[in-house]
Structures are given as structure tokens and as C-alpha cells.
Amino acid sequence: MFAFIFSFINGLRFGQEHITPATWVVLGLLGLLSTVSWAALLMKWLLLRRTERANRRFLRQFHESPHPLAIYLTKEQTEMSPLYYLYHAAAKDLAFHLVGEEEPGRSFSARLQGAGRISPSQMSTVQNSMERAVGSAALKLEMRLGFVATVISIAPLLGVLGTLLGLLEVFAVQAGGGGPATLAESVCTALLSSIAAVAVVIPSLAGYNLVVGRIRYLIVRMDNFAAELSGIFDRQFVDHRKVEESLPSLGSLGAPAMPVPGTTTGTSRHPLVTKT
User: Most CB atoms closer than 10 Å: which of 9, 64, 85, 240?
Assistant: First the structure.
């Protein structure tokens, strides 16, 4: 094992001593892409950590609040929490349907106590607001990950390009009648680009998958909270009673049959009609 590592290090050192300008360009591009991708992954990871802490803080406040709209009425904001913005969007739409105002004012609390319930169709608009909030938060969480995915896709191609350039130099050395030492230098230089590409792709891919996994967890958590919030609002603010059927109109019942004037059928029972 140690012998393999020692020989690998010696091979890298030997190739580094004979790197061509084209290989230096490829290695520079790989190093730049790796640095930028890891900076993006690190910033995203720190952002996700702050987001998870903010979500836990908001959930604790929400579950300890005496009323589903208490946080909305007190205007207690929880920065960096997608769950708070989801809750705020749903509470804002619900408040509009209940009292006709989106932002709580001085008389909002009193009007809310005297407000009735909303219909299931109005509740569907509140659910649509939550779905839009989840989609917007998901887009923000996934922002700048496309660049990392692009680096992961481009790095192997750059490694292949560097290897091909090195192989062209190998053929040139062979055509020029170079010796085995010169041929070994060219082959070693050609392989350095592929090794560098692998060294860039493997860690970046691992970090990318780790970050994407955390983002998926947060999105699922938002979906679950949206379902929980929808159930709470539905139980406390939605009227599910069936609307009583209205009486049918006279036109729908049809007009009664009227006797034709000048004809009599039997003896009339009306007290004002006498038979002559």
C-alpha cells in the first residue's frame, strides 16, 4: 500500500517537472472551476445550516403560540426561515378572507374575533398561496447549484482535452525520433490532466449530492408544514356545513292547467256559480 502511494507521488512529481504550457492551461482551468464550485457549495451549506436553525426557532414559536394567527398579529418575523414566509403568505390570504384586510391594524384583532368562517373555495386560495410559497423557497434554495453541476460535467471533458493534447505531443515525439525518456515525459504529462479532472470531480460531486440532499429535506419539511397548517386553518376557520337547498321557482314547477272559457265539465263547486 505504501509502495503504491510512494510510486504515485513520484509519478506526479515527475510529471510536474515536465508539464507543457497547454497542460498548465488545462490544470489552471480545473483549479479555478474547483475553487469556485467549492466556494458555492460552502456558502450554500452555511446557508442551509442557518435556514434549519431558523426553521426550528419558528416552529417552536408557532407550536407555543395560543392562536394560529398570533405570530401574524404580533408581526414577529423569523429571518432566514422558509417556514415563516410560508406561514405569513397563508395567514395574509386567510386574514383577507376573514376581515377583508391583509395587514393587521389596530382593530384587526377585534374584527377577527367577530369574523365568521370562510368557505372551502376560499380556503383553496389559501392553499394555493402556500404552494406558491413552497415553490419560491425551493427556487431560492437551489440557486447557484446549476453552476456546480456544470463544473462537474465540464471537468472530465477538460481532463480528456488535456490528455489528448498530451497524446499529440507523444506522437510528435515519436515522429521526431525521441528516446524512451522523452516519451515517458510526454505520457506522464498527458495523464496529469485526467488525474486532475478526477480530483476535481469526485469531491465536487460528493459535496453537490450532500447539499442537494439537505435541500430536498427542507422542501419536504415545507410540504409537511404546509399540510399541517392547512389542516389547522381548515378546522378552525372553514365552514363545511352544507348550504340548504333553496325552494324551486314557480317556473320550474310548471303552470297549472286552466279550463277553457265557455266549457263546463260537471257541476261547478264555486259558490258564486249557479247553473241555469
Answer: 85
In our burial notation (b when 16+ CB lie closer than 10 A, e otherwise), range 116-137 reads eebeeebbeebbebbeebbeeb
pLDDT at 276 > cutoff 50: no
Q: In this structure, is residue 276 part of a structural domain?
A: no
Q: How many domains does the chain have?
A: 1
**Cell 480545473 belongs to residue:** 30
Give dist(CA 268, CA 272) in Å, integer.
Answer: 9
Q: What is the mean pLDDT of the chain?
A: 79
Q: Is residue 24 in a domain? A: yes
Q: How distant, in Å, are the alpha carbons of 97, 170, 178, 187, 188 from that of 174?
A: 82, 6, 6, 11, 15
Q: How far apart are CA 134 and CA 223, in angstroms?
A: 7
**179 burial via Cβ count (<10 Å: 0-12, 13-18, 19+):** exposed
Q: Give bridge partners of residue 238 from the DSSP assignment.
A: 118
Residue 185 lies in a domain: yes
Residue whose entry in the numeric block shows the C-alpha cell 389542516: 231
Residue-range definition of the domain harbouring residue 159: 11-237
Q: What grid cell was written down for 56?
A: 426550528
Alpha helix positions (H), 100-179:
108-114, 120-141, 145-175
- Number of CB atoms found within 10 A of residue 229's CB: 21
Q: Is the pLDDT of residue 201 over 50?
A: yes
User: Considering the domain boundaries, does residue 119 fall inside one?
Assistant: yes
Q: What is the mean pLDDT of residues 191-203?
A: 85
For residue 78, CA distances in Å to 51, 141, 232 come to 10, 17, 20
